[in-house]
Amino acid sequence: MYYIILAVFFPILAGTYLLIRREMKTRKSLLITAGVSLAATAVFAVLALCMTGDEILTLFNMTDRLPILFKVDTVSAVFSVMTVIIFVGAGFFSFEYMKHEQKEKRYYGFYLIVFGVLLALCFAGNLITFYLFFELLTLSSMPLVLHNGSKEAIMAGLKYLFYSLCGAYMSLFGLYFIESYGNTLTFSPGGVLSAGAVTEHGGILLVTAMLMLIGFGVKAGMFPMHAWLPTAHPVAPAPASAVLSAVIVKAGVLGIVRVVYYIFGVSFLRGSWVQTLWMVLTLLTVFMGSMLAYREPVLKKRLAYSTVSQLSYILFGLSVMDTGALTGGLLHVLCHGFIKAALFLCAGAIIFKTGKTRVEELRGIGKEMPLLMWCYTIASLGLIGIPPTGGFVSKWYLAEGALSSGIPVFSWLGPVILLISALLTAGYLLPLSIRGFFPGTDFDYGTLEKKEPSLLMTIPVLILTLLSVLIGLLPGGLLELLQQIAGKVL
User: Residue 338 belongs to what domain range?
Assistant: First the structure.
């Protein structure tokens, strides 16, 4: 169990060391320090996952009723594996990309700290531990947003801070009531509310649940608290955008999973006005995010709006409270993580090699960077939900779960909205590939030159793209694991 401590605090200490020490003698020594820290953290996290069981590691007690503790379960495994793979991949991508950025030492310092904080969220064993690291995640990731120091970046960072803190305070409000009316703050499959508390305080507990859903939903970009996401992600360095869009926003998803299925419980929320309102907000966000992405000309901002939409695919699956939909939602956590990280890294490589940021400027890019654009195209097909990618499997389970749930209106409205969103996704992702590989007869082919990025940038993109396909080709074992999770909490 002590590997959890190393997985959480080693990158935090390594990042702090980079922040407080003077400038490194050479850039190479900085990269070696960051690379070793990333690799060591990945090893510690894997060793911690080998300790999956009922054992609880208590770090210390804030009060008699508020212990800070860690516990590894199957939900921890899903989110931590995704976090490790994407953070290590985007980290090594950074070694090449950050050459044209300033303040690299500061960047890698905060990058490592965020890595450790996210693993702490994955391994958090109770609500107070989760909340403390959730707040720390906002404070430690904000410097990644405002890294370049421009006015736009600073305003985006402040917007991210304001929205995130507002959401966190809604969750804190809920924590007070759970501490008062729940049997414990420790995450327990099925929930922790006593029958007496539900009978006597059911009304206020439903309000509390809705506030916590919106509070954690801020980080996940759920309407009406989504506006920070398309503002913050495009101004960050591309590898930071990748982890923001693929992993950091999933902290909100993880918070909602824990609150709904491990604190309040499905038996309390199913059929309530909270479930209905939550489903309305998720479907509204799915459609709205896709429409805004379709209209957006800047590539990174288009991908950011896409994240708003795709995250609510996951939240819709969670809100249905059906085995199939929950399985699809959890699978989409992984699929979206790998796909969106690959897409943002592709966008970063394009910006790094060409300096172009708008989709309309990228005619013929497939001729200049064919390998990278094939990765972009395959990842895009996964996000649309085309077989044999993992995105097809996850969306199949989401739609099937909604149809089998029997919830009036939403059992058919959900799949319809998801299908419309998939068509819009094709509309805003594939034109870049089409115009990139087929620029037209009026295109000046004489200006083309090969601009394929280095192996340090290409290999992480290749790995993430391959994972997004492998999940679709070989989903069996993973689906069994996710169905086991669903079986324990439903």
Answer: 270-490
